[in-house]
Amino acid sequence: MRAAVLTAFGGPEVLEVREVAEPRPGRGGVLVEVRAAAVNNTDLWTRQGAYGLPGHPDALAGWRGPVAFPRIQGGDMAGVVREVGEGVDAAWRGRRVLVDPALYDGPGDDARPIGLLGSEADGGFADAVVVAADRVHDMTDSPLDDEALAALPVAYGTATGMLERGGIGAGETVLVTGASGGVGLAAVQLAAARGARVVALTTPDKADAVRDAGAAATADRHLAGDELTAAVDEAVDGRLDAVVDVVGGAVLSTVLPLVGDGGRWVIAGAMAGPVVEFDLRRLYLHNVALVGSSMHTPAHFARLAADAVAGRIAPRIAARYALADIHAAQEEFARSTHVGKIVLLPGA
Fold this sequence. Notes:
Number of strands: 18
Helix content: 25-40%
Number of helices: 10
Radius of gyration: 20 Å
Distance between the termini: 13 Å
Strand content: 25-35%
CATH superfamily of the largest domain: Medium-chain alcohol dehydrogenases, catalytic domain
Shape: globular
Largest sheet: 7 strands, mixed
CATH class of the largest domain: Alpha Beta
Structural class: alpha/beta
Oligomer: single chain
CATH architecture of the largest domain: Alpha-Beta Complex
Order of helices and strands: EEEHEEEEEEEHHEHEHEHEHEHEHEHE
């Protein structure tokens, strides 16, 4: 089969599209024919080794440390179960499925992710992938096509985890940073679907697309200091219950004073800088919770899968590429001019 294989940390040249042996499902596993996959920041950062190590932030590493090369990339995928391993109900064969890409630290609905397909195990940038049978979700009744389903696992899974861990629900006012990116746009859509009033930080040229996803108001993410504080304060209209932050950096110290008593700041990214300085008094005097959120739990992903079956979400597809054109897909992704997901089609 064809696959996009990561051979080392480095530039685009270390990612090779080539023929590899098709995997076979063992006990408790299924072979999924990949109909669509999608590109994430995780794919680029893993290729670049950009995650660093504790005490060594510039060290080459995957998100959990070492990466065993060669590694087939890709955490986002949807497809059809083609084979089942020993102990798996044969009725799964032929079903359209969404794959939960997380590797967990144990059983149970609240297990924590400790790995990711495409990083700690082979992923979906291939014609087929073997996954655990308990990590596939039946999408037979979903109105979403394969491309839309493939857009969900990493971005929407991460966003769902943030909303769940932050206890974000109907009637609340929520600020979403990085709102035109994969996780940010997913958070806008999912929070709005829960009945929250969403204010989004984005660029003016992408504001219309973000509002189309469900944001009630937007503010220019290029603003800083007092200007950003004033813009957010006006947009939230005096009430800010929670922040869903995928950017990090100076926005924390700038916007934190606007978060109301009992508010939550949930963070799952640090694109604007991993090291920040803020006034601790704004945290403890107002009983604000600062919550770190990495991906999702099995329960979170099950809620996302239910949303997909019910058609409560509709991912935006920005571009489509054949698997053989993955370098061009990652190049477009890195330019950050798109809104929505960039999808790979292995069968194209």
